[in-house]
Amino acid sequence: MSPYVSRLRSRPHGQFPGQARLRLPGAPRRPRRVAMLSVHTSPLHQPGTGDAGGMNVYIVELARKLASINIEVEIFTRATTGTLPPAVELAPGVLVRHVDAGPYEGLAKEELPAQLCAFTHGVMQAWAGQRPGHYDLVHSHYWLSGHVGWLAAERWGAPLVHAMHTMAKVKNAALAAGDTPEPAARVIGETQIVRAADRLIANTAEESDELVRHYEAEPDKVAVVHPGVNLDRFRPTGGAVAESRAAARARLGLPQDAVIPLFAGRIQPLKAPDILLRAVAALVNEDPSLRSRLVVPVVGGPSGSGLARPEGLQKLAARLGIADLVQFRPPVGQEQLADWYRAASVLVMPSYSESFGLVAIEAQACGTPVVAAAVGGLPVAVRDGVSGFLVAGHDPADYARALGRFVADPALPARMGTDAAHHAQSFGWDTAAAATAEVYTAAMQERRRHLRSPHG
């Protein structure tokens, strides 16, 4: 039974009617309000553009679900245009605060460390206008936010919960050819945050092990919480998976009988969309008749080191002789992205590193199987042989063989897609938010024990 019962309390924005809590003596207390930090990418940005990707989706969906279980969230992010209001209500109980830190436009992620002091100042200004104890806990995302969170948590006397999302040492150990390694400053910064945080949230058990192995995290400080997927948005529509796929193809103007391997995400070496193109070229070279049956959508925009050669993938498609098969599409909203997932025969994720791979879960929830690299969290996201196929390594020939199975068996996308949709049902955001709330509660309990300790 929950230790909380209704009691009126003040709320400066979007008060939930009748919502409030009374803590029974000695009962663990959840935070009432969390300061969530996302320095380098705004939850209001379109995923697939610039540095916006899975982390944006993660923050938005987690914040919404936390608010639905009576934990208010204020998300601090860097203002990227001068026309943004200081605060925007994203959903009831979720406020996005825009902080002026550096020029609005033209600032690369690599230049942001120099703006962390300005960002921290903006966060402190927002806090100064509130009553003492306004924020019960700080939850930072990515290492840049972690440094701001570290200072804010110390100033406020609140616990710090940090989510890495990606780690420099892990990325540098699996770089794509020609990709730029993460700088030493990031490695040092991540090491400091691991030591400072009261709790660390890892997406998978493997990520937890990496935190311990690479950054000497204390194992009892690391909690594994799988990210979720919005199962109301990402789902088959109109009956069975085959009917859902046909309807989505009709809406997108795609041929009904085509084999459609989809890439969706940021176009950069880390995500390895070139491997999909090379695999398709291998299939066509082996069987030229496939040229009339293959459509290869690439949905997303250049990001990170991919910005150095924004047209590199188009030029590769031309060199491989498959430019007529590849459809380059700009990033799209979540509703249209769901239609691209539904329309595809298979989603292809040949990434060199993925902390989890939300895109894989989204596609499976829509009834689309996944062919993915067996890296990071993808072996958790994809059930090999059931909801898709995992590929060891990054040899295009191996991906061509996996895609060849969908070419050879026209019924495989629907059959495996049905299992994929069932597999994705265990990754709802309700579960992720409840588990995150437990991490918050544990961090707050430990902080109180530390304050009561004579040696604290």
Automatic annotation (TrEMBL):
It catalyses: 1D-myo-inositol 3-phosphate + UDP-N-acetyl-alpha-D-glucosamine = 1D-myo-inositol 2-acetamido-2-deoxy-alpha-D-glucopyranoside 3-phosphate + UDP + H(+). It is an enzyme of class 2 (transferase). UDP-N-acetyl-alpha-D-glucosamine binds at residues 46-47, 54, 266, 271, 332, 354, 362. Residues 246-421 form the Glycosyl transferase family domain. InterPro entries: Glyco_trans_1, Glyco_trans_4-like_N, Mycothiol_biosynthesis_MshA. 1D-myo-inositol 3-phosphate binds at residues 40, 51-56, 109, 142, 166, 186. Its EC number is 2.4.1.250. GO terms for molecular function: acetylglucosaminyltransferase activity; D-inositol-3-phosphate glycosyltransferase activity; magnesium ion binding. Keywords: Glycosyltransferase, Magnesium, Metal-binding, Transferase. The keyword Transferase applies. Gene3D superfamilies: Glycogen Phosphorylase B. GO terms for biological process: mycothiol biosynthetic process. Residues 53-228 form the Glycosyltransferase subfamily 4-like N-terminal domain. Mg(2+) binds at residues 341-342, 344, 368. Residues 1-27 are annotated as: Disordered. Homodimer. Catalyzes the transfer of a N-acetyl-glucosamine moiety to 1D-myo-inositol 3-phosphate to produce 1D-myo-inositol 2-acetamido-2-deoxy-glucopyranoside 3-phosphate in the mycothiol biosynthesis pathway. PANTHER family: D-INOSITOL 3-PHOSPHATE GLYCOSYLTRANSFERASE, GLYCOSYLTRANSFERASE. Belongs to the glycosyltransferase group 1 family. MshA subfamily. This is D-inositol-3-phosphate glycosyltransferase. It comes from Streptomyces sioyaensis. The gene is mshA.
